[in-house]
Amino acid sequence: MALNQNDIETVCGALEEWCKETRTALNSDDGRDAAAVMLGLYKTGHETKGSILEAMRRVNIG
């Protein structure tokens, strides 16, 4: 799946916010795991930063 700039900004923005909320280093194992989960969420229809974050909170990663 190819991502355009807006897609990347959406996922990265959600990841950065999630890392701040959970006090997780972006370049840590947990940060990388969260990035992978968020990409999966994006691919399955969570196409906004808010939607990704809401789903991550339900998944309770970290």
Low-confidence segments: none
In N-to-C order, the SSE pattern is HHH
| Broad structural category | mainly alpha
The chain-level mean pLDDT equals 92
Number of strands: 0
The largest pleated sheet is described as: none
Write down the domain tally.
1
N→C terminal distance:
26 Å
What does this structure look like?
This protein has 62 residues and is an all-alpha fold. It has one domain (5-59). The chain contains three helices and no strands. Helix 1 crosses helix 2, helix 1 (5-22) packs across helix 3 (49-59) and helix 2 (29-43) crosses helix 3. The radius of gyration is 10 Å and the shape is globular. The N and C termini lie far apart (26 Å). The model has no long low-confidence stretch (mean pLDDT 92).
Task: Provide key terms for this protein.
62 residues; mainly alpha; globular
Write the layout of secondary structure elements.
Blueprint: H1 5-22, H2 29-43, H3 49-59
Helix pairs in contact: 1-2, 1-3, 2-3
Short structural summary:
With 62 residues, the protein is an all-alpha fold. The chain has helices spanning 5-22, 29-43, 49-59.
